[in-house]
């Protein structure tokens, strides 16, 4: 049985499962994922399955949360992911999201982020939620600000040249 975390007007946010490998393969190889999140080296569906097992499914088990599959309520079509990620370099979880290109710019990211934040505030007692993005990802920055996040700093998590904007929301 699918674990539904939250429903909004148009979307269902549910736990990923091993049957989502084909969708995850497509999402992780979409142009905006590669441009703004990075190439995860997922070149075959079996690698997408391993990603699911090692990332979202493992996070549910260890942290009690993780990214959710974002599904259109009307059709049952998976369109993206949205949820919390635990980063070693952050005190609190970080909100992350990504959508297939054909579903960008339609309000689904905002709706899923707000649903995720509502769910998190109901279920967990974190001291806050972080979000990170690149300086070039202007659409993400605007969305985070619209969701109530405020930029706090510029960080380089790996100590290298990568610069990420760090946002925070109570």
Automatic annotation (TrEMBL):
InterPro entries: Acyl_CoA_acyltransferase, GNAT_dom, N-acetyltransferase. Residues 11-170 form the N-acetyltransferase domain. Gene3D superfamilies: 3.40.630.30. This is GNAT family N-acetyltransferase. Transmembrane segments: none annotated.
